[in-house]
Amino acid sequence: MIRGVILVIIGAVAAPLLGGLIAGVDRRLTAWLQSRYGPPIWQPFFDVIKLFGKERLVVNGWQVFCAHVYITATMLSVVLFFLQSDLLLILFVQAFGAIFLVIGAFSTTSPYSQVGANRELIQILTYEPLIVLVFVGIYLVTGSFKISEILAQTKPLLVSLPLLYIVLCYALTIKLRKSPFDFSTSHHAHQELVKGFLTEYSGRYLALVEIGHWYEVVLILGLCSLFWATSWIGVLVLVGVTYLCEILIDNIMARMTWQWMLGYVWTMGLAMSFVNLIWLHGR
Amino acid sequence: MDTIKAFIRKSRAKSPWLLHFDCGSCNGCDIEVLACLTPVYDIERFGIINVGNPKHADLLLVTGTVNHRNKKVLANLAEQMPDPKIVVALGSCGLTGGIFREAYNVIGGVDKIIPVDVYVPGCPPKPEAIIDGVVTGLEKFAEKKGDKS
Amino acid sequence: MLNTLLFILILGPFIAAALCYFVRISHIRSFIVLAMGCLLAVTSILLFTKAPFSHTPPPLLNIPIHWWIIWGDDGLLLTMLYYGFKHRHLFTKILIIFQIVALDYFELFMVDHSKTFPLFFADNLSLIMVLIISIVGPLICVFAIPYMNKHEEHQGLKKSRQPKFFAFLVMIIGAMNGLVLSNNIIFMYVFFEVTTLGSFMLISHDRTETALKNAVRALWMNCLAGAAFIVAMILAYITQGTVDAQELIRGGHMGGIMLTPLALLCFAGMVKAAQIPFQSWLLGAMVAPTPTSALLHSSTMVKAGAYIALRFAPGYAGTFLSQSLAVCGAFTFLATSAMAVSQSNGKKVLAYSTIGNLGLIFACAGINTPEAITAGILLIIFHAFSKALLFLCVGDIEQHIGSRDIEVMRGLYAKMPRTTLIAILGMVTMMLPPFGVLLSKWMALEAASKHLFVMVLLAVGSALMVMYWARWAGILLSAPYGSHVEPERQGVLTRLPLLALVGGAVVLSLCAPLLYSNLVAPILSAPSFSVRAGIFENPTGAFLLYPVILVLALGFIYAVYAAKKAQKARTSGPYLCGAQTTDPESFEGPMRKPVAVSSGAYYFESIFGEQRLTVWFNVCGGMLVALLIGGAL
């Protein structure tokens, strides 16, 4: 029981701190790759705190509503992750937040927001089936969708699910909104169509969305860490290398179109999942 | 409560998001503004991000003269920025209308339309001057009252 | 007591239908519909307390029931034949004549009527169906009362066609009750055919050219289902010598011989449930007045198909038939979800979503593990409420704004806030946790995870499904900035069904653990989940229903509070590059003229276009159906 409470607190409090830190490191490394000095590592926290200190400026009440629902759902999904709950349930709860964020963007008539919302829906459409298939792969290895069962494994999942890990990385890239998949919104100065579906969120509501995004980053990186959950070093190495690759890809790739993303990611993702799942089936 | 306020003030100074509006400039100032973003000057080390949307911005950087055609746009952009915000006028034109001030369609400097916090002179101002102006603006920004509600 | 209850549930609607038809006074008709609705709802709950039972009613007017059934069926088929001749449709005529000959031969010369077995049988599956039919069905009928008045006003008819409309609307409810309670498959067949005739009459109601064309299409497709049903009955009788459904299910494991009739039954169910490649009849049914669509899509008609598949599921467990049924269902789910994405016609989106969800139920029946069956049954319950609600909302919206196009509904919140919110809630119950449809989808996914191909189809399909619901919900909210929102006025008979259905959809989701442990678990061969403190758990996974509901509800309440608080905040129009005019919904264009802002959603015509995909999906679907039947031969 006490362990559960501690895990809930870790999920609810430590996760966004970690997410913010990751975002800070990300900006620093990106700056390094562009031979710049870059902002301090704590920069994302300064940004969010500043946003909280700003005036409330709204287009309508729905955005406010949706931003709060979004952060609740993302927080819940991370807490469920730390409670070692069911993978599919976690995905669905996360989808709840993502969908409400899109609905909030749809609720304003701003063309930027509308375009962003449509594109975000395409991004959700692209990564959701892939994540489900990754979970199926995990199920075929462990016989369960519960994270607690995965942690009981003695062999890293990566050994039997290498291709599905790559598929998960596609989903991670989309979810992190990194190039070449950053067209619903984009980080800092990339601003795809003046920041896509975030256009009309401002001040503290933008801050809520940002914190929600940190939760999501932690969740997806957490999913990555499950692939080498047998040792802490493994987790650190795997997640670190994966994230470094993400930053590298972000910096060397150009933004593509959504048609390309849907076609490419589905083709590659489904093909790799199929191959990997058939291996497992064959055993 | 005071510590929180102090913290917010500090964060403000550390994270001004910048909206650049070209109000009819000859592009000389704009090139210098963009130079600030390049690796040589790298204003992101001050946490400054060039955003494209007034709703996310804290700092409105205006270059060029204001004319009858775009005065409304300038006012609209400033109106859509949530408080607290600061306005930095850049270059001779932004300050007074510059060499265009006598033209029939020109109103004059930015402060004819919206209150300006920092004036950065020069034709065009050097990137160092721009950064200096923005950093001066940050002190004002940190002290401003936000969140009227 | 049981006789009375069965009489009310099955024949009551028929009597009410006759009254509706012959008493041509609109107030009395409304009263009959209302009274029958209340009576059915109460009776279905009373019947529920008797469960489970098997029962043979005494002869009606001293004539054994099966004679009534034979006469009724011949009358029915002759009526259908009449329409076949009237509309000069050769294929319909052939199918109906085949049915008449086959059925009479079967009834008079083959079946041994001296054999006694319970004519009616109800376990929890039947009773759940009865409850849904007798509660959701009447609510739709009640909604139809004001709707049809307006509809006819709009059409400018001289002579009201409402008596006939309500007669068939009400009759379908009785037929459905009969179908799900019958144990004799001949009875089942007869009620099956009654729903065919009823849907034909309802679809052709407006008597426009399209309506007639679509009605005839519905007729021949459903006659095909009927013909398959008869052949299945005859084959089953030849192999097993009985028409007792329970006996047939138990005999399923005898080996390959019984599979052909079961496959044909599944085929009949798939046609009735408009699975690909037979989806066109249900899409065509959209031309009918909205209550028809609501009734056909949510609680009756198409659910008859799903019911048959679930009812006979134990009979074909672990066979090739079962597996191919799962693939067929999952394929339908994917295909219809893809096509729905390209649709901006609201009713068509709903239609595709119905077919898709039924596909999911068929997939569950095909997967055939206790988890999957649980998912299928729960899906029937939750889907009935949410889908009926959405149809009624769209009907009401259509009467207000004169269009069923999603793009025309943009910003509907400003015009009809209440209906819009109810509709959005309906959409949320269709796609997001912790609501019932998603709970059942979760069960289905977990159950499907051993079937690789099925799983891939379901995974892609459910992402597509989320896409079109979210897009629609967002568009409804996309109201112009600063528009003054005033609640719209609505009649009691319109609002009551909407509120009842939305309440039902939400409350039932909250009661999902109770529904599972009291209704579904007793009919499973082995319990699929253990339910403790609102947590569904089995070795495969766990769904923390109540904890999730609790947290999301708290977040929801806080979000409402925050949104209320933000009303005092400064507002500002949408960002238009600073060029907005005094009206924040337009920007200053050339010559200082205001240009209104407009935007549309993506419908992906080039990828998921209906025209493009239908042919290929029909080909694939046809092959899969051939696989299903061929594999069972």
Q: How does this structure look, described?
A:
The complex is a heterotrimer of chains A (283), B (149) and C (633). In chain A, helix 1 (2-33) packs across helix 3, helix 4 packs antiparallel against helix 5 (111-142) and helix 9 crosses helix 10 (232-252). The longest helix of chain A is centred in the first third of the chain and has 32 residues, at 2-33. The mean pLDDT of chain A is 87. Chain A has one domain (2-282). With 283 residues, chain A is mostly helical. Chain A has helices at residues 2-33, 43-52, 61-82, 87-106, 111-142, 147-151, 157-160, 162-175, 203-225, 232-252, 258-282; one strand at residues 57-58. Chain B is of the alpha/beta class and 149 residues long. Chain B has a single domain (13-143), classed as 3-Layer(aba) Sandwich (Rossmann fold), CATH 3.40.50.12280. Chain B has helices spanning 2-14, 28-37, 71-79, 91-96, 127-143; strands spanning 17-22, 49-51, 59-63, 66-67, 86-90, 106-108, 118-120. Chain B has a five-stranded parallel β-sheet. In chain B, strands 4-6 form a two-stranded antiparallel sheet. In chain B, helix 1 runs antiparallel to helix 5. Chain B starts with a helix and ends in a 6-residue tail after the last helix. Chain C has a domain at 317-565 and 586-633. In chain C, the strands form three sheets. Chain C has a three-stranded antiparallel β-sheet with strand order 3-4-5. A two-stranded antiparallel sheet of chain C has the order 1-2. In chain C, helix 7 runs antiparallel to helix 8. The longest helix of chain C is centred in the first third of the chain and has 32 residues, at 124-155. Chains in contact: A-B, A-C, B-C. At the A-C interface, strand 1, helix 3, helix 4, helix 5 and helix 11 of A face helix 18, helix 19, strand 5, helix 22 and strand 6 of C.
